[in-house]
Amino acid sequence: MKSIEIKNRSQFMRKMALQGYMIRVQLPEIERLLVLLSNATNNLNQIARRVNGGSLLYGSDIEILRRDYQGLREMLNEMLRSLRPDKQ
User: Fold this and answer.
1) Are 57 and 51 in contact (CB under 8 A)?
2) Could you tell me which residues come within 8 angstroms of residue 64 by beta carbon, excluding any fewer than 6 positions away?
């Protein structure tokens, strides 16, 4: 149970009874992508709240969003390239 980080014994028993095995997959690239996505959506929400509250949208706001989404695109493209069969 410790190696796959399941703390609930009954959940562990059900999973073992149904599948007979468990695999714990760690994908740091996906975790990093999720952090970048979270940052980008937080920035977008903050800007949307400010604009909906009557404030102006500044060029720096747009540049922050562009930078965030460019980083996401680059990381996602890199991951997709690494998964292509012709690149292996």
Assistant:
1) yes
2) 43, 47
**pLDDT tens for each residue of 27-66:** 888 888 888 889 889 988 999 999 999 998 889 988 988 9
Q: Rounded CA gap, 82 and 33, in Å?
A: 15
Residues 6+ apart with CB under 8 A from 4: 22, 24
pTM of the shown model: 0.57
- Residue 60 DSSP SS3: helix
CB 61 within 8 A of CB 44: no
Inter-residue contact 81 to 75 (CB < 8 Å): no
Amino acid in position 40: A
The tokens for 14 are: 């059900």
Would you say 77 and 36 are in contact if contact means Cβ atoms under 8 Å apart?
Answer: no
